[in-house]
Specification:
Belongs to the binding-protein-dependent transport system permease family. The chain is an all-alpha fold. The chain has helices spanning 5-36, 40-44, 58-64, 67-98, 106-118, 123-132, 139-144, 150-162, 165-173, 178-189, 191-207, 210-215, 224-232, 252-274, 278-281.
Length: 289
């Protein structure tokens, strides 16, 4: 089948447009990486545009030598790993019953859950609610208070509804109950969906800083993103890194850029490993309404 002139023009324009968008999205990361590897005076004077200038690793040495960075890193890993597991558990527990026609009041429950996607109380009432329950400045608040996203519940519910009912009936003939059916039938078939939803939860947890900044006051409990905010927005680097050594080798800017690179390394490692599940998992919501 021959490609028409219009298709060829579309492919060329589409390729050029996507290339420009891709380069525009990639350049900030390249710049941050180059700046973190450059000398402090080169970054301050604006000599770094694309490639590193006067390459050195002093900024990374300064970052990795600070206890506050490692504490914040450990907190972020804890909130991400534990929080993602809790989120997946609660999401599965909500999606599986909603996928069953025999659930009494299913329509009303679905409506009430969906209502939270359209309306919510707002930031101030939510904060006051956390305060009145004594959940401020507590690690478990970050885990529990933001555990479930309604959209992901409906996403998994839709996939569970697409599983052939014959598999469940066969398991029931063998004497399996709902918990065993969920564990041995539904979850193995839902691997792509669970990996996709889990990654979305993990990225949200890893990048989350707003509520952690509001809820957590103890410096030993804040995640890495809150620490980054203090360094970049509040220009509070002096409290974290006092000795800059030689001003020509490292500066406040290079240390900030190095901290940013260090903070995104885990997501850069995880994304390629789970990318193969995206094609199937991201389209699960379109299988069955």
């Amino acid at each position: 089948m021959r490609t028409s002139l219009g298709d060829k023009c579309f492919n060329v324009i589409n390729t050029l447009l996507l290339s420009v968008i891709g380069l525009a999205a990639l350049y900030p990361f390249v710049y941050v990486l180059s700046a973190s590897l450059s000398s402090g005076d080169a970054v301050v004077s604006g000599k770094v545009l694309l490639l590193p200038v006067n390459i050195n690793l002093e900024a990374y040495v300064k970052v990795l030598m600070q206890k506050s960075i490692w504490v914040a890193y450990a907190n972020t890993l804890y909130y991400t790993v534990v929080g993602t597991l809790v989120s997946l558990l609660l999401t599965i527990c909500g999606a599986y019953p909603l996928s069953k026609k025999r659930l009494k009041g299913k329509g009303v429950i679905n409506f009430l859950i969906a209502l939270t996607m359209w309306f919510h109380a707002g930031m101030i009432p939510f904060y006051l609610n956390l305060r009145d329950m004594g959940m401020l400045n507590e690690r478990f608040t970050i885990i529990i208070a933001f555990a479930v996203t309604t959209f992901y519940v409906f996403l998994l519910r839709t996939f569970f509804q697409s599983v052939p009912v014959e598999l469940e009936e066969a398991a029931k003939i063998d004497g399996a109950g709902d918990y065993r059916i969920l564990w041995t039938v539904y979850l193995p078939l839902s691997r792509a969906s669970l990996m996709t939803v889990g990654l979305f939860y993990a990225v949200t947890r890893w990048n989350g800083y707003f509520w952690a900044m509001i809820v957590l006051k103890d410096k030993d409990k804040i995640p890495l993103q809150v620490l980054l905010k203090k360094l970049i927005v509040e220009n509070n680097l002096s409290e974290q890194l006092v000795d800059f050594g030689s001003a020509t080798l490292v500066s406040q800017e290079t240390v900030i850029y190095a901290t940013i690179i260090v903070s995104i390394i885990p997501m850069m490692i995880v994304y390629p490993l789970i990318q193969k599940y995206f094609a199937k998992g991201a389209l699960v919501g379109s299988v069955k309404g």
